[in-house]
Design goal:
heterotrimer, A alpha/beta, B alpha/beta, C alpha/beta, A: alpha/beta, Rossmann fold, B: alpha/beta, 4-stranded mixed β-sheet, 50% helix, elongated, binds iron/sulfur cluster
């Protein structure tokens, strides 16, 4: 069988801050038989500028992303939010004779990692094992922009040894919102305080999610409040196996 | 009042909202109830997404042909003995209404809840003329007595508790009973009943006008709108020009969406569709009827990428799910239209000058877009506003502009980007302790004021990948 | 009657839409989905009645089901329960059909019964305002929302279902339809036929209420405080 070729879209946050997320993503993709490459010219999806209203600036970034992945068969990334951004390129470049086609091409082949596993590969059980009490925060862009609601939870349910605890009002935003967290930091603070409270109520040991931005926000707040919880990206859990696994 | 509520700065309003514990508690519990109600109703109805699709198609078609439908409406109303006045501005609308009231020598006016009359400042206008204006919706009446603006488009007094209401009633109307909601409501019933019976003029808003027959549909629970349309001899309907449905069948769908999305009800207690003046021999209903159709900045939204904002049916579902609204409350928006739809609509109707912060008062979580029964892409419109503020209005802060220019450079130059992944950790070293940054520099400050920031990884992903490619690291799984 | 300012206003609207003004020829498209037709499709009257009864609980409305021969008794009971001293009734053709003419005449010996009388003019409103109970027949009854549709006219004032403290609706079983959709279709069809729609169509679902004070549901605000539906088998 021909190996499925997948280009990793690391996202700038994971590239720089949470490198392990990338390693776990690679681990999972190779485990399910994909051949992974990493186009090194990739940068940022453009979201910080786009969401702040800097369309021209955002487009410069987006063009770089389109160039980087132009030869890829599939583009898979560990973030619902950033992949969601890629999927919006066609609307953004609509009518742009030079870039529209590339935008459509990229949007059609881009997937968030859990979405790729469940919807494209049809994998729901990765044979992973993870011991601990875990609560899952479904990030807003993953669920509402990208429309991925079930895949992460389906995968988590199949993890051996995991104790999943439902997060109260889980669909509520954590207050991250990219530049919103800085520009409207008071409102963002109130939002993340509330989210932290909900997470704490679950008594979970781990907070898991599919977007490091949100996890960094909630985790950072809980740390500031002296609350003890570990934040883990969903790929870390899925890439943990009895017979070793984990980060290479 | 007009669209804008007051003169506090954005910063002051946000702080005031966040510090108001009672209001936040009230809003939060109300949102909880709304959420449950809406979800139960949507579930019972089953194919909610189909309903939303239908609602969105009806609104799209209607707005695309709104000139046609408004003409049809006005002709039908006229046939049924009603006068129709098309008002381009708030002033024109107020002047016409003033004229009608003067002609009838109206002294006492009862109103049922109407956002558009708030928008055009009708009450203030009429009070200046010496007329007595009574708001008859319970929430609106409370606010009127207390001289406080609404903070929500469906439950306007959401921010008040019963003790505050009891006090207001006691001070303004000599109320001497408890703060039980039943007693408070019974008192309002008794007081307002007198007003209904003695008013010369009734003024209502309009949920949906039905173009094909000239009927105006009002959706209420209390019954006050029925009083206002049944008892006074002169009646005036004021409608925003977009509040129209082609036929009874379309009205039906929109009402079904409205009551479910707004309050989780299958229908409100009263849905009333009245047409023109009363017919020969009828006792109830006005003898003299006027429909005032208001533009006040709406037409200039047509034909722009914001056109779908006019699809709004004022259900407040977007407000009820909005976490920003929950924490800052309605008054923080400084607009009679708060929440996500307010942040979209207010700058369109009243300009960016006073409202340029509103489009940023959102984390773009899209809960509003998901809740909207007519599928208005609210969060996308907020982004579009931001683009206009940056590119056309040029109202974004200079530092932000410089940073964004820098961002574009960085993100479009792989070498620069790569360099930054190498240097980030070192650059932040002075602020890093135990892999954590608590007092970040520059733009990080807003972040670290509120929560910790993690130190960048010791080795970036791309550096790791490069080593791995060279065979220095083997994949643990292989 | 007069229409002011129409041309300037609508031409401006058309200009913003970037096209000439549309004066005729606009057709509603056929919508891509019609979920409203699927609600309770194929339900029998009995099944719809069950839906209605269940919904009545949600809207704080009592409902009784009677044979025609029991209608007078059911009305008497309800009036007693509401301690009605004065009653205002629509001057409905169906009063005779259901034998209520004699009943009201009888009732008038104990209770003050006023049958709406267009000749009396505003006096009707004053009576309705003082009445304890208003009684109307439903013209179309919506099962889903437990709604009675009232076509108000000169024999059936809007005040009857509005001003008294209590409201009784008589619902002929044959008037029950699945939901608002069917009522709207009927009204739309009559417009299409060029008929005149009533000056007021009131869709009433139970007593009035409000949630304006701390989101507490208060039953009975400006309109009736209590309501009873009497479902009656058809003539
Ligand atoms: S924008 Fe949508 S959700 Fe918000 S009030 Fe309008 S119709 Fe309701």
């Amino acid at each position: 069988m021909r190996l499925m070729k997948v280009s990793l879209f690391i996202t700038c946050v994971s590239d720089m801050i949470f490198a392990d997320v990338g390693k776990h993503t690679v681990g999972i993709l190779e485990r399910v038989g994909c051949e992974v490459d990493f186009p090194v010219a990739q940068t940022c999806c453009g979201q910080p500028a786009y969401n702040s209203g800097y369309l021209q600036e955002a487009k410069q970034s987006m063009k770089q992303i389109m160039l980087s992945f132009k030869d890829s068969e599939y583009v898979v990334g560990p973030s619902g939010s950033c992949v969601g951004m890629l999927r919006e390129y066609p609307a953004i470049f609509k009518g742009d004779s030079e870039w529209e086609e590339a935008a459509i091409d990229l949007a059609n082949k881009s997937y968030e990692i859990t979405q790729f596993l469940v919807d494209v590969l049809g994998v729901t059980d990765l044979g992973s094992t993870f011991k601990g009490k875990v609560t899952y925060h479904p990030s807003c862009h993953m669920t509402r922009i990208l429309g991925v609601k079930d895949a992460p939870q389906t995968l988590l349910r199949h993890v051996k040894g995991i104790e999943l605890i439902e997060l109260p009002i889980k669909e509520d935003c954590c207050g991250f919102g990219g530049t919103f967290a800085v520009k409207n930091s008071e409102i963002s603070r109130e939002m993340v305080k509330e989210k932290s409270q909900h997470v704490a109520e679950t008594n979970a040991e781990y907070l898991v999610g599919g977007d490091m931005g949100c996890l960094m926000n909630i985790g950072g707040r809980m740390r500031r409040e002296g609350k003890n919880i570990k934040i883990v990206h969903i790929t870390e859990i899925l890439n943990t196996h009895e017979q070793g696994g984990g980060i290479a | 009042m007009s669209i804008k509520l007051g003169d506090l700065s954005y910063q002051q309003r946000i702080e005031k909202g966040i510090e108001n514990d009672f209001m936040r508690e009230a809003v939060s519990s109300a949102q909880g109830r709304f959420r449950n109600g809406r979800l139960t109703q949507a579930e019972e109805l089953g194919d909610w997404e189909d309903w939303r699709q239908l609602g969105s198609e009806i609104r799209t078609h209607t707005l695309e042909n709104i000139d046609y439908y408004l003409q049809q409406l006005s002709e039908q109303v006229s046939k049924r003995g009603g006068n129709v006045f098309f008002a381009t501005t708030a002033e024109e609308a107020n002047a016409y209404i003033e004229k009608v009231i003067k002609q009838k020598n109206g002294k006492k006016i009862v109103k049922s809840k109407s956002m558009v009359t708030e928008e055009i400042g009708l009450n203030q206008h009429l009070e200046k003329l010496g007329a007595e204006v009574v708001e008859s919706d319970l929430g609106e009446w409370i606010l009127q007595l207390d001289e406080d603006p609404p903070s929500h488009i469906v439950t306007p007094a959401l921010h008040k508790n019963k003790e505050q209401i009891r006090k207001t009633f006691a001070e303004k109307r000599g109320y001497d009973q408890s703060d039980s909601p039943e007693e408070l409501a019974a008192f309002a019933r008794e007081q307002l009943r007198k007003d209904f019976l003695s008013a010369d003029v009734g003024i209502t808003g309009c949920n949906f006008a039905i173009a094909e027959s000239g009927a105006i549909t009002l959706v209420t629970n209390e019954g006050n709108a029925r009083m206002v349309t049944a008892l006074p001899e002169t009646q005036i309907t004021v409608m925003g020009m977009e509040r129209i449905a082609p036929t009874w069948e379309d009205m039906e769908v929109l009402v079904s969406l409205l009551t479910r999305a707004a309050v989780g009800q299958k229908l409100t207690s009263y849905v009333t569709s009245y047409t023109g003046a009363r017919l020969e021999g009828e006792i109830d209903g006005p003898d003299d009827y006027h429909l005032v159709i208001v533009d006040n900045g709406r037409s200039k939204i047509l034909g722009t990428e914001f056109q779908s904002a006019l699809h709004c049916i004022r259900c407040a579902a977007c407000i009820n799910v909005c976490p920003v609204y929950r924490h800052v409350g309605g008054h923080a928006y400084n607009s009679i239209y708060p929440g996500p739809i307010g942040a979209v609509l207010t700058p369109l109707l009243d300009g960016y000058d006073d409202h340029k912060e509103l489009p940023y008062a959102s984390s773009l979580c899209a809960a509003c877009t998901e809740a909207c029964p007519v599928k208005i892409p609210l969060h996308e419109q907020l982004i579009r506003h931001r683009q206009i503020i940056v590119e056309q209005e040029k109202k974004s802060p200079i530092m932000e502009k410089i940073m964004m220019k820098g961002f574009a450079q960085w993100a479009s130059t792989p070498a620069a980007y790569k360099l930054s992944t190498k240097l980030a950790r070192t650059a932040l070293k002075p602020w890093t302790k135990d892999e954590t940054i608590k007092n970040g520099p520059g733009p990080l400050k807003g972040w670290t004021d509120v929560r910790d920031f993690p130190a960048p990884a010791k080795q970036s992903f791309r550096a790791w990948w490069k080593e791995r490619q060279k065979g220095e690291v083997r994949n643990g799984n292989s | 009657m007069a229409i002011h300012n129409q041309d300037a206003f609508l031409s401006n609207v058309a200009a913003h839409l970037g096209r000439p003004r549309r004066i005729s020829g606009v057709k509603r498209p056929s919508w891509s989905v019609r979920p409203q037709d699927r609600v309770f499709a194929g339900y029998s009257k009995e099944e719809l009645l069950a839906v209605l009864k269940k919904q009545c609980q949600a809207i704080h409305t009592d409902v009784v089901e009677v044979q025609q021969s029991e209608l007078a008794e059911a009305l008497t009971d309800t009036i007693k329960r509401y301690r009605g001293k004065t009653v205002v009734v629509a001057n409905d053709k169906r009063n005779a059909l259901y034998g209520l003419d004699q009943f009201y005449e009888q009732l008038n010996k104990e209770v003050d019964v006023h049958i709406w009388d267009a000749q009396l003019g505003k006096e009707n409103q004053t009576i309705a305002e003082r009445a304890d109970i208003g009684i109307s027949f439903s013209d179309i009854t919506l099962a889903e929302s437990a709604t009675v549709t009232l076509f108000n006219d000169k024999h059936h004032g809007r005040s009857i279902s509005l001003l008294p403290k209590s409201f009784i609706a008589i619902i002929p079983k044959s008037t029950i339809v699945p939901r608002l959709t069917q009522a709207a279709q009927q009204l739309h069809a009559s417009v299409e036929k060029g008929e005149r729609v009533p000056s007021c169509v009131s869709f009433v679902s139970g007593p009035s209420n409000s949630a304006d004070i701390e989101m507490n549901l208060i039953v009975g605000v400006h309109g009736p405080i209590q309501a009873t539906y009497i479902v009656v088998g058809d003539k």
